[in-house]
Amino acid sequence: MIEQYYNISYKIDIVIHKKYLEDTESDALLHIVLSDPKHIKHALVTKAGQPSKKRNGAIYGDRNEYVITYRGQIIKKPVYPWNSEFKELRNKIAETTEQKYNTCALQIYNSGQVGIKPHRDKEMNAGSKISSISLGETRIMRFERSGFEAIDIVLDKGDLCIINYPTNNYWLHSIPTDDTTQLRASLIFRNFD
Hints:
Blueprint: E1 2-7, E2 12-17, H1 23-35, E3 56-61, E4 65-70, E5 73-78, H2 84-97, E6 103-109, E7 116-119, E8 130-136, E9 139-144, E10 151-155, E11 160-163, H3 167-170, E12 172-175, E13 184-190
Antiparallel strand pairs: 1-2, 2-11, 3-6, 4-5, 6-13, 7-12, 8-11, 8-13, 9-10, 9-12
GO molecular function: dioxygenase activity
Protein name: Fe2OG dioxygenase domain-containing protein
Domain Fe2OG dioxygenase: 100-193
């Protein structure tokens, strides 16, 4: 099933492919993510036994280094070579979206206490799409723009979310915190120069 959030005058175009991956495929990818120690920069559980409130992640791609500007600072992060599973998924999504991707950002949210604040992705090629696969727990992705009502989209495991141009130029997106207790991960495919 495909859901679309499109309004040209609002400059929003988002497509959700519900159950793009079957549960078995989604679960297998999540197992790969959680089995690789380079994905877990912070403990999933604190010394006090509470879920960590820090996001974990890694970047995969065609380069050795990922450079971003964040709050006026230049940040360099290592880029890992594609593993076969992520590369296969990248190729499948590229065929669906008719766009090539050269970077995959893995994000791990240990529980609903961990989110990401409203932001825009800034380092991408102009006019390109952002495509992400949700793994694990169901969470909300929120789109916000000044003067407009927020749009909340439910992302279940296996869902593919495609943020088409020019949405990212006008709308902020976030994963708000909530009361869920299970882990969620996402694989976010982008195209950079």
